[in-house]
Amino acid sequence: MKNKETLSTRKLVLTALLAALVVVGSALRITIPIDIGGTTSFHLGNIMCALSGILLGPWLGGLASGLGSMIYDMMNPLYISECWLTFLTKGAYGLVAGLVIRGCKKEWSYGWASLATAAGAVTYAALYLAKSYFYSGLLIKGLTPDAAWLSVVAKLPATAFNAVIAYIFAPMLAVAIRKALRESSLRLE
Length: 189
Fold this sequence. Notes:
Distance between the termini: 20 Å
Strand content: 5-15%
Number of strands: 2
Structural class: mainly alpha
Oligomer: single chain
């Protein structure tokens, strides 16, 4: 018989905990208005999105990062209309990070966690900037293509900053948490 992976209480609790940490990380932000109508933010939510994928794997990590980010958006009137898109784009962050970690054949290390974070960050940045151009810029705000492109360019510094901060801190946290769990005889699997 084939062993089926089950959703244990521990996995469910860790998914909810990481989703809550994504909400908190997303709330720790500095929002900056941009000239072309809209805002951009420096925040810590991406660290928790990458951490979710690294620790929980692709499906639960994607769920935790997407759900936590969506909940944050639902609590903020500026972002509530696009919370469903945030669920998809931030969910992709955790999903891709988890897929990269799952792809390593041996026990993963800081290097694998860094690679997973980078892959998740690049995926999310591409999806976020595409959403900013097509959905927020052209469809919702009715900007011309040139103006929508300028709004994307204005968001690049914050997007890059958030990715770099996640790249620095998520792998360190993942390795430390994994080590602490192993030393206390707890497992994520």
